[in-house]
Structures are given as C-alpha cells and as structure tokens.
Amino acid sequence: MIRVFLVDDQELVRAGFTMLVDSQPDMRVVGQAGDGGEAVEKISVTACDVVLMDVRMPRLDGVEATNRLQSLPQAPKVIVLTTFDLDEYAFAAIKAGAAGFLLKNTPPADLLSAIRQVHSGDAVVSPSTTKRLLEHFAGALPDSGVERPDLAQLTAREREVLVEVARGLSNTEIAKLFTLSEATVKTHIGRILAKTGLRDRVALVVLGYETGLVRPTK
What we know:
alpha/beta, Rossmann fold, 5-stranded parallel β-sheet, 5 strands, Sig_transdc_resp-reg_receiver, Response regulator transcription factor, WalR-like
C-alpha cells in the first residue's frame, strides 16, 4: 500500500486528490496539511511514502518544506505540483530534493502513474517532460558551467550516458542510441549516481544543465 500525504492550501484541491488517491486499491491518503510548516510537523510523526506538494502556500512554501523533509530519517519522496508561471519555484524545489514535478492540470491517470513510479524508485516522472520544463525556465539556471571534480571520475561512456539523461532520453532511447541493452544503461546510471553522490535521475538532469554538459535551447 502506497501511503500518500497531501499538501495544498486549498481544501477543495485536497478533497479532490483524496477522492482520486483513495479510489485506488494500492494507495491511500494518510494525512493532509494546508501549508509547508504544518506538513513538516505532521510528516515528522506520520509514516508516508509519497508527498504531493503544492509550491505556493502561506507560512512555509513547498520549496522550503521539501528541503526540510530531506533531513528526516525516513524522508518520503516528494512530487511538486506547479504551473508554468511558477518556473523558478519548480527548479528550486527539485534542487531542494523533490523527486519530480507535475503541472496542476495533469490528467488524473498520469498523476496516479507518477505516484507509483516515484514509489517504485523511478524518481523521474517523465524524462522528456523534465527536459522541456527545465528548458522552459532556463532563466533559473546558472549562466555558466559549474565545475564538479566528481565528473572526472566518470568513464567516457558514463559521461555520454549522463548527457543523454540530461537531454531527457529514456533508458530505452539511450540503449538504442549507443547499441546497448537497457540493463547496461541502468548499470551505467547507477554508477553515475554513486560517483556523483546524487539521489536520482532528476538530480542528474539538473547536474547536466548546471555543469553546461547540456544547454537549454533558446
């Protein structure tokens, strides 16, 4: 059973999400909060697996709440809910530790699929969507590449795979591009995560843009 916690300052929105989540046989809502501060307080004493986190809220916004949740012993996965006009918030939330993000007008089936994907360990809701949104809010990205000594530890193939992950390609697409098996691609990604100390694929996308390995299209 996937335990879901809802964070949104609109009660009607939370009610809608509750009905959707509780309608599924493999997930249920275990708690709710109307702002980030309340969310951090409740989640610290409520066992949950996935948090649906709104960004713009009173008292404590979703970005800071996401950041604080990462310090918990059993930190839940956070999916940030945002809109196109909150570009800087979405990027900041991923930097703060969010496993992914969705637009608020995401179809219900896609939201449920995202919850399951994140819970299973695939932190990227959609590689291609991540890429498009990062390019959309390119203004939030650094102007110049950031040097990271750990990148020197990557093999030539690992570096190539990292670039394609940052460009938004799926494991299947990367495997086809380099004539590899998907299992081999997964192994490469696992090693890249270990060498860079990053938590998931979303963080690799951010790394690719931050270091200048991939440039946003104008």
